[in-house]
């Protein structure tokens, strides 16, 4: 299978179930790699395996103690570092239109705290999912599903029947 030029970076995700769900979604949309940073659990964690349902075998991954070092390395290697977070400078996900010629690293933050200050300082840009409800937040696995679909829609839908 041809992978999309997209990687996922998870910044201190507490729940193994959320990590497993991101693996499963990454497999569904042909994502290239998942970077598990900080306290984020790694396979074969029981909760990851429960929700990933085998996707840890089809999506490559690596663990990095420091989110900042991981993102700096990706940036040096030419990846567009894109945070998914509500900030004073974030843009609407509706305006996120990655092009086939670029490689995109999507950074998702902790379930409670969001993206860490260490990761915010390295981002090239930040997008948020437009919402009209009172909570203005989504579970990390739901958020990743929406954003990865957006990437697939722009980068991969024409590649696959």
Annotation keywords:
Alpha/beta knot; 31% helix; 161 residues; seven-stranded parallel beta sheet
Please give a quick description of this structure.
This protein has 161 residues and is α/β, with parallel strands linked by helices.
Approximate helicity band: 25-40%
Task: Give the CA-CA distance, first to last residue.
Answer: 12 Å
Largest sheet properties = 7 strands, parallel
Strand order of the largest sheet: 3-2-1-6-4-7-5
Q: Mean pLDDT across all residues, rounded?
A: 94
Shape: globular
Low-confidence stretches: none
Query: What is the C-level CATH assignment?
Result: Alpha Beta
How many distinct folded domains? 1
CATH topology: Alpha/beta knot
CA gyration radius, whole angstroms: 14 Å
Describe the protein.
The protein is α/β, with parallel strands linked by helices and 161 residues long. It has helices at residues 16-28, 46-52, 67-76, 117-120, 140-155; strands at 4-11, 31-37, 60-64, 80-84, 91-92, 104-108, 125-128. Strands 3-2-1-6-4-7-5 form a seven-stranded parallel beta sheet, sandwiched between helices. Helix 1 runs parallel beside helix 5.
How are the secondary structure elements laid out?
Elements: E1 4-11, H1 16-28, E2 31-37, H2 46-52, E3 60-64, H3 67-76, E4 80-84, E5 91-92, E6 104-108, H4 117-120, E7 125-128, H5 140-155
Parallel strand pairs: 1-2, 1-6, 2-3, 4-6, 4-7, 5-7
Helix pairs in contact: 1-2, 1-5
């Amino acid at each position: 299978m041809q992978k999309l030029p997209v990687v996922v970076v998870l910044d201190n995700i507490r729940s193994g179930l959320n990590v497993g769900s991101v693996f499963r979604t990454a497999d569904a949309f042909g994502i290239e790699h998942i970077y598990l940073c900080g306290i984020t659990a790694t396979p074969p964690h029981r909760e990851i395996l429960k929700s990933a349902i085998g996707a840890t075998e089809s999506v490559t991954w690596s663990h990095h103690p420091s989110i900042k070092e991981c993102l700096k390395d990706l940036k040096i290697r030419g990846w567009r570092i894109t945070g998914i977070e509500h900030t004073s400078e974030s843009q609407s996900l509706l305006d996120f239109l990655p092009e086939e010629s670029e490689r995109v690293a999507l950074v998702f933050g902790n379930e409670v705290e969001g993206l860490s200050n260490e990761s915010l300082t390295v981002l090239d840009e930040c997008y948020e999912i437009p919402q009209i409800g009172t909570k203005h937040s989504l579970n990390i696995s739901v958020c990743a599903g929406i954003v990865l679909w957006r990437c697939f829609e722009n980068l991969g839908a024409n590649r696959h029947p």
